[in-house]
Design brief:
Low-confidence stretches: none
Distance between the termini: 14 Å
Strand order of the largest sheet: 4-3-9-1-10-13-2-14
Shape: globular
Number of strands: 14
Helix content: 25-40%
Strand content: 15-25%
Number of domains: 1
Oligomer: single chain
CATH superfamily: Alkaline Phosphatase, subunit A
CATH class: Alpha Beta
Radius of gyration: 19 Å
Length: 307
Amino acid sequence: MADKPSRSLVLYGDGLARFVDLSNTNIHSLASVGSCGFLSLPNAPPETENERTVREFAHLLDASEAYSIANGLKPKGNGNEISTLAERFMGLKAALVTDSSTLTSFGKLIGLDVLQLSEICQESDSFPSDATSSKLLKLLGFDGGKCLDVSLYDSVFVHIGVDQYNNGNNNMGIIDSLIGSIMRMAQPGSEIVSRLHLSLVLSYGSVTDKDVSVFPIKTPQEDINPAFAGLVPRQSYTMRGEKTRDDVRLYCPMLVAQWQHAVTRKDLVDTLSFETLKKLSGNLVIPADRFIHEVAFKLWKAPKYGA
């Protein structure tokens, strides 16, 4: 545990998990020094791409209740009120950086300051330059390699979707470039490295029936020795408190890698891929709606989730 609260930068590649390849060396470097795992999502009703984008982001921030109220799935009143992140997490100051208009509206609804990605992103040879990373870090009070006593935000979420620059596959290169630049600025010994908590989250976006067998997170029942089948406990990601989560999607989880020097544990993952995380990740699977609680704990804004 750090002796001061961390400041969190979350890079969220919405629908980009399918595009990770070996050329994304900075992403794999982050995974190799950090702690990795899966974030499970619930099954979804038929929905538009915009609805999926907002719904999955809402789960990352444990704001599915707000999503349901905003979309008329739950009536307002009778105890159903939309709470902001600051109200739920001890005054947490957070910003969302995105060019998605639908996500902008939802972000404002739950109390996020929303900034335009296109205004922050400085392109150099089609990828973000160090100036972009510097702008993002400055929002967290990291300026010129120094850690300022006061910052605009405790946490910044950067949303980059598949069609952000009308060239889906190359958006993975944008995130890879950002990670490389940020990690160069947060070298061991710098003021930044002791306070920056960096998360990379990649989702699969819209899923199809073909994905069920390609990206499963559940151990097939046939792989369990029949003699012990009745003794296998329910995994924690299928539970919420003492109640069973009956709507868990057992395939296409979000991939997550988190790193803070001398704070996060290092596991055996050396490349960020579904198969590698399934075999070697230290965090295994947690529900996506617990992600913000894990981050807020590092910011001293929430109690520890899990062990």
